[in-house]
Design brief:
The chain has 310 residues and is of the alpha/beta class. It is 33% helix and 18% strand. The protein contains ten helices and twelve strands. The strands form three sheets. It has a six-stranded mixed beta sheet, with helices on both faces. A four-stranded parallel beta sheet has the order 2-1-3-4, sandwiched between helices. The protein has a two-stranded antiparallel ribbon with strand order 11-12. A hairpin with a 6-residue loop joins strand 11 and strand 12. Helix 1 packs across helix 2 and helix 3 runs antiparallel to helix 4. The longest helix has 15 residues. The protein is globular, with a radius of gyration of 22 Å. The two termini are 29 Å apart.
């Protein structure tokens, strides 16, 4: 039985990548749904799937986050994971679809929930904007603000994994992109430009056609303007995503007992317990020698997988 992937907005549900991609459950907003109804919705998901991973953008209204915490507290359930993401709307929707793809695999709920941070590191999410005067989610230099007053100025903004702003033009600086094969997804707002398709595609060596979807309703608010074209470059193939997640060393949460990858549990948010110090005074000489021998037996390769996490 796959883990349920739930979202706080229908904008986060992209068309399925393939017929085997599970659908996402859309949780209605709190202003149009009573607390009792929200509890019933979550109970049905838990009864059907056993565990639920809810993806909630960090930019979502405070009331949405409060409702999710209230539901989890009232149900007293440790089978609900609340995953927050700082990705812009289109990038967050790509992350949700990747989690949906992986939900159909053999990953445990804990690994799936904690994989969100790893996957977000491989999503290059940005937009072409007609103005950066109201952009407050990506650092904007004074020079970019001043250039924004020039007639017809456009800016290419990368929100993650490394924030960057460049002015679009003949002498524009290159926007650093992925060093791995990706596909490009576009969502057009009120800005008339083909810059992502004509410049990013060849510069980032993106093969195949560019896919387009409707602009998420929350995108103008996230980017500070409706004059934009939002884009996201991402890993599209399930085998690659599966290999990426499965290559990271798995741990067991010392608090709730769920499996996890990385340094934090996706369900209870407890940090990974640090390993005991083999050189501490609590260990006698014999115990120290045994611990050091075990460390040498593991070798450096046993520790490199976690370095793939952001």
């Amino acid at each position: 039985m796959p883990t349920a992937i739930a979202v706080t907005s229908a904008d986060l549900v992209l068309p399925a990548a393939d017929p085997g991609t599970p659908q996402a459950a859309v949780l209605p907003p709190p202003e149009g749904r009573s607390l009792d109804a929200s509890l019933a919705d979550m109970q049905q998901l838990l009864a059907r799937y056993g565990h639920v991973v809810v993806v909630c953008p960090a930019a979502a209204p405070t009331a949405v986050e409060h409702r999710l915490h209230a539901v989890r507290a009232l149900l007293e359930s440790d089978r609900i994971a609340l995953v927050r993401t700082d990705l812009p709307p289109l990038g967050a929707a790509v992350l949700v679809r990747q989690l949906r793809q992986l939900a159909g695999c053999d990953f445990s709920p804990g690994v799936l929930a904690s994989a969100a941070r790893l996957l977000a590191h491989y999503i290059y999410a940005g937009a072409v904007l007609g103005s950066v005067s109201r952009l407050d989610r990506v650092p904007v230099s004074l020079g970019s603000h001043l250039k924004g007053w020039l007639p017809g100025a456009h800016f290419a903004v990368l929100a993650g994994p490394t924030p960057r702003i460049v002015r679009v033009g003949a002498s524009e600086e290159p926007l650093a992109g992925p060093e791995f094969a990706t596909e490009l997804l576009l969502a057009r707002g009120q800005l008339q430009t083909d810059w992502p398709a004509t410049t990013l595609v060849p510069r980032w060596r993106i093969p195949g056609p560019v896919h387009e979807v409707p602009l998420p309703a929350s995108s103008p608010g996230w980017w500070g303007t409706g004059k934009l074209v939002e884009f996201a470059a991402y890993l599209p193939d399930l085998p690659v995503l599966y290999q990426l997640v499965s290559s990271v060393r798995r741990e067991t949460c010392h608090w709730c007992g769920m499996e996890l990858i990385g340094d934090r549990c996706g369900f209870c948010a407890a940090p990974l317990a640090p390993p005991p110090d083999p050189g501490g005074y609590a260990l006698g000489p014999g115990a120290q020698a045994q611990a050091q021998a075990q460390a040498r037996a593991l070798g450096p390769g046993a520790r490199t997988a976690r370095a793939a996490l952001p």
